Every structure is written in C-alpha cells, then in structure tokens.
Amino acid sequence: MLFILAMAAPFTISDWKKLLILVTAFTLGHSLTLALAASGIIKFNSGLIELLIPITIFITAASNLLYKDLKDLKWRYLITLGFGLIHGMGFSSYFRMMYEGNSNWITQLFLFNCGVEIGQLLVLGLIMLLGVLATSALKVEKRKWTIVLSVIAAIISGYLILDKF
User: Fold this and answer.
1) What DSSP designation does 95 have?
2) Could you report the per-residue pLDDT of 129-164, keeping only the tens digit for each?
C-alpha cells in the first residue's frame, strides 16, 4: 500500500483517468506474476524480491521529488507495470503459504487478487480524499502535498531497504 501512496501522490481527483491507467498497469503487472509464480511457472529468490519491493517504492517516491510534472511522463506507465511485476512476485510468496496444496487454487488466486485490488482501491480513495482536504480545506499547495507524501514513502521504504541488509 506504500507503493500506492507514492504512486498517487502527484495526482488530483481531476487526474483520475491518468491515475486509473497507472493503477491498471500496476494491477496487470502484479496479477501476471502472481499467477505465474503461484502456479510454479516462474521461480525467483524471495529475498531479492523482498529487497526490490521497497526499492520500487523508494524510486517512485524519489521521482515525485525530482520531477515536478509527473502526470505527463509516458515512461511512468511502463515503470509502474514493471514494478507491478515485482510486487506480484512478493504477493505470490504469501499466497503460496496460505493456499499450498489447495486443489481449488485458481479460484483462490482470483479471490486473493480481488481482495488485494479492493484494498488498493480503498487506500487510493483515502489518499485522494486526504489530498482534496489538504489542498482545498487546508489550502496546502499541491506540490507541497506531493512532497510530504513522497518523503514519508521514501523514509519508510528507505528503512525497509536498510533492514534487508
């Protein structure tokens, strides 16, 4: 969910189409690798994935700080898709632990993925609501709001990265 925070930070409610494309790219990425890894088609080093996940969050947060207008960067969609692939591998470890040996794993995989998506959409909605409150009610400049959210995500993900060493 920290990735969702960093990804959504530069966007406003009026940017919902662009944000929807980003969320869809992330979802496609993690759904694909979740299914492939859960079925045993691909294998990976879980320790490496546990390190790469906070790195993807840190890169996303840092890009928010380095670039002022992230909403028009086409490469962001491809990067988000790629980061989704990494996050899906992380989800797959948890999924395999929960449903190993279950003969109905495909249905469970679908339901698990739906649960992840619902959680992401709830977090995304909360971030958007807080953004509206901060920028409208509290009159915080949108760029400052983006910086605050991105710094929070960068600090937490930085700690997670260091914790893996």
Assistant:
1) H
2) 999 999 999 999 999 999 999 999 999 999 999 998
Q: How far apart are CA 124 and CA 145, in angstroms?
A: 15
**What's the token pair of residue 22?**
């980003």
CB proximity list for 81: less than 8 A, separation 6 or greater: 25, 26, 28, 29
CA dihedral angle for residue 161, residue 163, residue 164, residue 165, rounded to 10 degrees: 100
87 sits in which H/E element: helix 75-99
Cβ contact 56:3 at 8 Å: yes
Within a 13 Å sphere around the CA of 160, how many CA atoms are in the beta-carbon half? 20
Helices (H), 39-67: 46-66
User: Is 87 within 8 Å of 30 (Cβ atoms)?
Assistant: yes
Of the candidates 66, 64, 77, 75, the residue with the CA atom closest to the CA atom of residue 28? 77
| 8 A C-beta contact, residue 89 and residue 44 | yes
- pLDDT at residue 89 greater than cutoff 80: yes
Contact, 160 vs 54, CB < 8 A? yes
Cα 11 → chain centroid: 14
Domain residue limits, the chain: 2-163
